[in-house]
Amino acid sequence: xxxxxxxxxxxxxxxxxxxxxxxxxxxxxxxxxxxxxxxxxxxxxxxxxxxxxxxxxxxxxxxxxxxxxxxxxxxxxxxxxxxxxxxxxxxxxxxxxxxxxxxxxxxxxxxxxxxxxxxxxxxxxxxxxxxxxxxxxxxxxxxxxxxxxxxxxxxxxxxxxxxxxxxxxxxxxxxxxxxxxxxxxxxxxxxxxxxxxxxxxxxxxxxxxxxxxxxxxxxxxxxxxxxxxxxxxxxxxxxxxxxxxxxxxxxxxxxxxxxxxxxxxxxxxxxxxxxxxxxxxxxxxxxxxxxxxxxxxxxxxxxxxxxxxxxxxxxxxxxxxxxxxxxxxxxxxxxxxxxxxxxxxxxxxxxxxxxxxxxxxxxxxxxxxxxxxxxxxxxxxxxxxxxxxxxxxxxxxxxxxxxxxxxxxxxxxxxxxxxxxxxxxxxxxxxxxxxxxxxxxxxxxxxxxxxxxxxxxxxxxxxxxxxxxxxxxxxxxxxxxxxxxxxxxxxxxxxxxxxxxxxxxxxxxxxxxxxxxxxxxxxxxx
Length: 526
Prior knowledge:
- It is a single chain.
- The protein is mainly α.
- It has helices at residues 25-50, 54-62, 64-97, 103-111, 118-128, 135-146, 148-160, 164-171, 176-205, 208-212, 218-228, 233-261, 278-310, 318-352, 356-365, 373-386, 395-419, 423-431, 436-464, 468-473, 481-490, 494-518; strands at 3-4, 21-22.
- The chain is built from 22 helices and two strands.
- It has a two-stranded antiparallel ribbon with strand order 1-2.
- The two termini are 36 Å apart.
- It is found in: Cell inner membrane; Cell membrane.
- Residues 70-253, 325-515 form the ABC transmembrane type-1 domain.
- It holds the Pfam family BPD_transp_1.
- Keywords: Cell inner membrane, Cell membrane, Membrane, Transmembrane, Transmembrane helix, Transport.
């Protein structure tokens, strides 16, 4: 076993003999097992494609439809990324630099769209304008759904930005807007770009909104190939191309995030306080933020209730709705619990040790961040049918899909929480005679559990609204709120889709609100 260095927060090594110690074998084995679970769908997808006829695979890769899907997906990602970057930076600027009435309310409203599924926003658009189809409406929907991925890290960076150079620019004759754009904004851009890449990753992997608005993207094509053919080779090849594209985005996102987190800390003594814009300016800022919140948060419930009223009321199958809500909570809760359990050994390993083996385990555990739900679902369909046919379309396989997809969310929160616990406090506990296990529970876990719990909540809220893997892997006869909503919207029954949509929105908002209150921000969120 290679000797590695325990790393405290900030990357500084403690002095003395404790500066060098071995990775505990049990911890490394547990972390490796968790990483293997995360890598299973991707490995199986490669095996599935490798077993196919090479000539057929090349024909599928070179066909005109594959090129069309690449172009369509690239255009969609580019448009959504630009929209999220502009709207996210503007929103962050208003939240941090402008004095607003009830500022805490606007922070909550800016983050809560994380709980709103993109396909619910697309459903609302179709309920108002049934003819809405194509790129334009889809870009609007995804920008509204993904902007928090940019707003939250950009606002966090803006809060700690050095305002000294901006003051100097003002004294040299620059106006407030010019000084901000020329001096302060470049300090915020690395964090904003990292969030933009997360939004791009979400866009590339989204299935529900493109399918509802009839825009041919990769995810829709994979789902259609899976459902419409007996030979699944075409679906597997298309899924592999999508996976390669998303992995490129993951690499870019991690590079941008490292650039942001490694930026030298500033120690500006004077920070510019929030600016008063006057009545007209404040009213404009509030109206702008309120309009975005209304479209994203108030719009879908209003449209849904409107559809019910327009239909003169509908007969709700309360038993079926309650069963779907219970399945949603149980599946998402089980996924959150299992994701936290698997993330703990990897998070502790990555937070406390360095080395090639540690880096490899952590990178493998993050693979789910680059796997769209439709790819994970398809891979586990192949795997369960070939290896464990008795588990096909059972709850354990669906929970496993959620864990693979959302393990990076729990892992990021766990690693950050453990890194904030000083290594010195653990060493003091050990010198007082406590065992490593007792030290973990009484010192590390006692201080890190809020961050770990936040990661579990993030997994739960994301699993509640997951659609493509759920459609592929849900047990026969079992519905979640997402699949009930999808089934009704696919039939054009907008009134019947309103109850599960409202129930899903209410359920997802509860853990999302807890996350906002805890100050959690998405990291590798899809």
